[in-house]
């Protein structure tokens, strides 16, 4: 049995003889105390700050407009809306406890802290779906919709890919299984949400259910940071543990993300088939475009043909709609450079 | 005739791009210093004929903290004669794709002789190699003509 299949042991809370700056993200020596000024990967502090700066809560968004508009949606739109809502909620429900599970086995305290923040944000996402539901339909129907999500064979099939690896880690938490969990976490956060996002943004571009879309856009912004963090986590994990950095595991990434891509296309074909204005072929291209981005975040090659974003409207709302945080650098000194472009005589490649 | 590439990278994407550009500058016979930002010291910029700046982008299209000294060095040193280019990697899902490249672009246009900018999405791919060639062609073009 390779060392990468040996169980990881839960680290003790405090290990006074070890340094505060951990010697590894797993199986490292770490005192358990966290001083952000003395960490192995200083960029993690920036990431932590960014996650906190994204803080939001569902109650800040007033649902009155959407409540009025709900009556004007077609029956199909209402049905798809509720099914997607509960399906996304079930994904977030998995993610909250999984992130805390991982936390127990990661030895670097700065990574533990980031997993804690991610877990908290997934809990907020989960709540936001409940908040949307409670504004629109009675409890009885909410419960029926959750049962529907639990029983739907296509939803179950796609969740199974993720669940198998999450459960495998819970049963036997080894470095290899942690790696597999992380890849599937990228599937969940970086691929599986997007048929749902597409539906809500599609409503929003017709000025329908815009408040719900604002929430979705906050969720997307968080998920983008999570998928980015997890891809960094995977890169560091493979670099620190060369036994994991094998051709087999790289193939595992390509194969597993490809499976998620096929399942996401299948789900989209099923859930979005009666929605006018979403071209499913185009959405297939979008999912491949998205997966190529995930590969590149992991430092790998495109797996699908390189293409431009075919659905530019599936995008986080511009920050003008969010609480913009300006850096001090450009505020403390007045700089008045004019915005220039290639028409000023240089080339933009 | 001397060139420098001054860059910062977190994920390794921008440093990969910096290395690709470095190889191409050298293969054009241009002696080029490859300088990670933590090795950069102010006061050196004017000794170069060509400088390429490489940066990732943070948060809402912001300049990474470690690039601020370099940005200010371009504003205070004698660099009017320097031909410059700026390149970076980013993620187009964010509202300000490669925003730090744009911030450098506007300043370099005012302070130096800006020749070219280059944005690459995440890890450079095969198709980006041609763009790196064009970037280097454009940077060296005017100097070779002279």
List the helices and strands and how they pair.
The complex is a heterodimer of chains A (349) and B (146).
Chain A: H1 43-53, H2 64-70, H3 75-103, H4 109-136, H5 139-151, H6 153-171, H7 175-190, H8 194-205, H9 210-240, H10 247-271, H11 280-297, H12 329-332, E1 347-348
Helix pairs in contact in A: 1-4, 3-4, 3-5, 3-6, 4-9, 6-7, 6-10, 7-9, 7-10, 8-9, 10-11
Chain B: E1 3-7, H1 13-27, E2 32-36, E3 50-55, H2 68-76, E4 83-90, H3 99-111, E5 113-121, H4 126-145
Parallel strand pairs in B: 1-2, 1-3, 3-4, 4-5
Helix pairs in contact in B: 1-4
InterPro entries (chain B): Flavodoxin, Flavodoxin/NO_synth, Flavoprotein-like_sf
Protein name (chain B): Flavodoxin
Cofactor (chain B): FMN
Protein architecture, described:
The complex is a heterodimer of chains A (349) and B (146). Helices cover 61% and strands 1% of the residues of chain A. Chain A has 349 residues and is mainly α. Chain A has a single domain, classed as Orthogonal Bundle (Ribonucleotide Reductase, subunit A). In chain A, helix 6 runs antiparallel to helix 10. Chain A is globular. Chain B is an alpha/beta fold and 146 residues long. Chain B has one domain (3-145): Rossmann fold, CATH 3.40.50.360. Chain B has helices at residues 13-27, 68-76, 99-111, 126-145; strands at 3-7, 32-36, 50-55, 83-90, 113-121. A 5-stranded parallel beta sheet of chain B has the order 2-1-3-4-5, sandwiched between helices. Chain B starts with a strand and ends with a helix. Chain A binds chain B through residues 43, 46, 50, 53, 224, 228, 232, 235, 293, 295-297, 299-302, 306, 309, 315-319, 324-325, 327, 329-330, 335, 337-340, 344, 346-349, and chain B through 10-13, 58-60, 62-63, 65, 68, 71, 91-96, 102-103, 105-107, 109-110, 114-119, 121-123, 125-127, 131, 134-135, 138.
């Amino acid at each position: 049995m390779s060392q990468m299949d040996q169980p990881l042991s839960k680290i003790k809370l405090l290990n006074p003889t070890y340094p505060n700056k951990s010697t590894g993200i797993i199986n490292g020596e770490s005192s358990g105390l966290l001083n952000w000024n003395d960490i192995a990967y200083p960029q993690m502090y920036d990431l932590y700050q960014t996650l906190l700066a994204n803080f939001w809560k569902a109650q800040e968004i007033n649902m009155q407009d959407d409540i009025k508009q709900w009556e004007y949606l077609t029956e199909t739109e209402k049905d798809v809306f509720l099914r997607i809502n509960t399906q996304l909620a079930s994904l977030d429900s998995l993610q909250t406890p999984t992130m805390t599970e991982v936390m127990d086995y990661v030895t670097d305290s700065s990574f533990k802290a980031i997993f804690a923040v991610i877990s908290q944000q997934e809990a907020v996402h989960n709540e936001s779906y409940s908040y949307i539901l409670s504004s629109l339909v009675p409890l009885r129907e909410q419960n029926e919709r959750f049962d529907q999500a639990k029983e739907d064979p296509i939803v179950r099939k796609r969740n199974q890919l993720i669940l198998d690896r999450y459960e495998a880690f819970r049963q036997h938490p080894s470095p290899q299984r942690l790696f597999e969990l992380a890849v599937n976490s990228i599937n969940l956060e970086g691929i599986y949400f997007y048929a749902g996002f597409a539906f809500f943004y599609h409503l929003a571009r017709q000025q329908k259910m815009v408040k719900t879309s604002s929430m979705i856009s906050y969720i997307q912004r968080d998920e983008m940071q999570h998928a980015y963090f997890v891809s960094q986590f995977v890169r560091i994990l493979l670099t620190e543990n060369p036994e994991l950095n094998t051709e087999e595991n790289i193939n595992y990434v390509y194969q597993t993300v490809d499976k998620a891509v096929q399942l996401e296309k299948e789900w989209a074909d099923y859930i979005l088939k009666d929605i006018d204005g979403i071209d499913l072929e185009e959405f297939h291209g979008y999912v491949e475009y998205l997966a190529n981005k995930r590969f590149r975040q992991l430092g790998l090659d495109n797996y699908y043909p390189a293409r431009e974003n075919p659905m530019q409207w599936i995008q986080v709302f511009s920050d003008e709609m969010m609480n913009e945080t300006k850096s001090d650098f450009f505020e403390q000194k007045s700089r008045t450079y004019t915005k220039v472009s290639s028409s000023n005589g240089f080339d933009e490649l | 005739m001397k060139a420098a590439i001054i860059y910062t990278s977190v994920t390794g994407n921008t440093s990969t791009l910096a290395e690709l550009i470095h190889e191409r500058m050298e293969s054009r016979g241009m002696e080029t210093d490859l300088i990670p930002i933590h090795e950069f010291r102010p006061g050196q910029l004017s000794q170069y004929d060509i400088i390429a700046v490489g940066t990732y982008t943070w948060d809402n299209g912001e300049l990474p903290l470690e690039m601020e000294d370099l940005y200010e060095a371009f504003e205070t040193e004698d660099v009017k004669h320097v031909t410059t280019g700026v390149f970076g990697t980013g993620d187009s899902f964010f509202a300000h794709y490669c925003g730090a490249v744009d911030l450098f672009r506007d300043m370099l246009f005012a302070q130096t002789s800006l020749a070219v900018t280059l944005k690459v999405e995440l890890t450079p791919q095969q198709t980006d190699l041609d763009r790196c060639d064009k970037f280097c062609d454009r940077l060296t073009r005017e100097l070779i003509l002279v």
